[in-house]
Specification:
Number of helices: 7
Shape: globular
Structural class: alpha/beta
Number of strands: 7
Mean pLDDT: 82
Strand order of the largest sheet: 3-1-2-6-7
Order of helices and strands: EEHEEEHEHHEHHH
Low-confidence stretches: 32-38
Strand content: 5-15%
Radius of gyration: 18 Å
Distance between the termini: 24 Å
Largest sheet: 5 strands, mixed
Length: 206
Amino acid sequence: MTILHHNDKACYFIHIPRTGGEYVTSLFNESDRGEDYKLFLNENERLGGIVLQHLHYPLYNWYFNLEKIPHITIVREPWEKFKSALNCMYGMHNDYYDDNFKDQESFDDFMAWEREVRSYHNNWFMPQYKFISPTTHYWKYESGFGNDFIQWVYDKTGMKIESPHNINPELPSHSRETKVKYNFDEEKVAKFVKEYYNKDYVTFDY
């Protein structure tokens, strides 16, 4: 989560994990515009055990008092987002996940463990719709981050951003993400994901 200020303009960027949020933040932070744009975020603080960067709604409104400024965020197709999280975490906890996805019940048990215990602090597996306030504007990751995205940010916030690399339209890469081949049946697990994240599929028209 990042609050951005520029003169009399401000917006709040809701960083849903594994949706390219670090890249988007860099567009505000690294563009050549002097010192007018500022980032406000204490990376060492937590609220209710959750890092401030990934607070969900309504926690960020309570903490930052943001009702009067625009909220923007990026959403991502849930199966691709789920794989991105697994790719990043693969082998991290001596848990290769293959035994966790035998059926919907075991998958749901895995998700409960991640959301309530191991990944509670960073909200990596929180459904995306839970990050969205009634006034949040969202952009789809799959639409890329080129000129259309730059214009969308301006239309929603009045803030102009520019890519430090001549507006690279490609999707952002995740430096911590390692591509792996799983032993589990990806087609079957994709169905578990679609069932678990059904409201995301409906809310964001995926």
